[in-house]
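Action item from last week, closing it out:
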Amino acid sequence: MGSLFIVSAPSGSGKSTIVQWLMKEHPELNLYFSISCTSRPPRGTEQNGVEYFFLTEEEFRQKIADNEFLEYEEVYAGRFYGTLKQQVERQLESGQNVVFDVDVKGGVNIKKFYGDRALSLFIQPPSVEELRRRLEGRGTDTPEAIESRLAKAEYELTFAPQFDHVVVNDDLETAKQETLQLVKDFLK
């Protein structure tokens, strides 16, 4: 039976970079993403059951009504993303260690559901000022979008105490090693 790892952070904290490094450089950890569902259509070469399970908005709403989701969010009107309980169980039963790269609310909800079966990690930027510098450095967002992300980040930082461990990503290499050690310790 596999284990569960929840990794959450404000946007720009380096969460996805750390998770992708763990999965690529440490195959011995047997880490696999939970495959989420979405009501948006596939983009480019995306395939059903690989990147996402693609559902119609009606199918998604029915699964919500049937309480089949571990967590879900309506990101935009009619545009849903969520994690099916049954999919996670299938992956755990096959021996995979399931990784959730999710927003902080989703992370808190998944932790509540699985309790001690899951390790929850909060990747924290050293400061909101540093987060601003990183988001501006990406060059992918308008100044308005950056302000919006920073306001959201300040709110999300208040959730850190609800996680098992907080990893401050001041230095990326240090944060990677710290996360690796926490995952290894949990798997023992």
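Closing note: Residues 172-187 form the longest helix (16 residues).
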